[in-house]
């Protein structure tokens, strides 16, 4: 069998995404035009080192810490938020402020342990000034790191919490209210969009149909799906 025939037995897209011969990984954090091909990182540690020296967008200049992720690196569930806030920038850990505390409570309510069952990260790794929504340029500059995180963790279920991660990764333009709670497939992975905990903090009602009530329905679905695996 010729070499070309042997190659054709494999998925060609895997080859077309491979690294160019002159690929220099050390240039990644300096310029958003430098691609981050799949399989660039063998470990989350190296990815975190790059994030902490990253200047691919303007957010790098103001950060205290890049906020890469927390939880189990082999977790079955990955939760992707928007961007770090002040507490996260100071500690280097995602979802440690008020929204994070509520997220912990929501997970605990269905016996999900944030250290064991979940890996938590954000679409964008550095804090935007005054907690504004990250721009599409910031999202694009940071996205390859997130794609590598997804590849490394290889979760069974991805939860997009809030519209930024949902839109940034999948291109979905409909709002969270329209599509939360629906299972969808993205790049062969089972995903669901859920409300952002910060939104729940602003909407305290627990009445039937309220955001908190809907979140309770959604997280129970997630628990049930995990139990199926
Ligand atoms: N909101 C987010 O989306 N991410 C965090 O890490 C904290 C608050």
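Q: What amino acid sequence fits the structure above?
A:
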């Amino acid at each position: 069998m010729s070499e070309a025939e042997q190659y054709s037995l494999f998925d060609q897209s895997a080859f077309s995404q491979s690294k160019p011969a002159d690929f220099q990984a050390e240039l990644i954090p300096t310029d958003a035009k430098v691609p981050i091909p799949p399989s660039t990182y063998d470990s989350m540690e190296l990815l975190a080192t790059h994030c902490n020296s990253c200047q691919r967008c303007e957010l790098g200049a103001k950060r205290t810490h890049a906020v890469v992720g927390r939880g189990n690196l082999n977790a079955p569930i990955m939760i992707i938020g928007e961007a770090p806030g002040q507490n996260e920038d100071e500690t280097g850990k995602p979802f440690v402020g008020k929204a994070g505390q509520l997220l912990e409570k929501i997970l605990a309510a269905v016996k999900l342990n944030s250290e064991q069952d979940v890996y938590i990260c954000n679409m964008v790794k550095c804090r935007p000034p005054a907690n504004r929504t990250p721009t599409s340029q910031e999202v694009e500059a940071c996205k390859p790191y997130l794609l590598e995180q997804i590849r490394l963790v290889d979760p069974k279920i991805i939860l997009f919490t809030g519209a930024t991660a949902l839109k940034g990764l999948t291109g979905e333009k409909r709002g969270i209210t329209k599509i939360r709670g629906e299972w969808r497939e993205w790049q062969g992975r089972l995903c669901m969009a859920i409300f952002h905990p910060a939104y729940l903090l602003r909407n305290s009602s627990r009445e039937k149909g309220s955001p908190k009530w809907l979140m309770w329905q959604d997280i129970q679905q997630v628990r049930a799906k995990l139990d199926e695996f």
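Q: And what stands out in the fold?
A: The CA atoms of residues 76 and 155 lie 5 Å apart.
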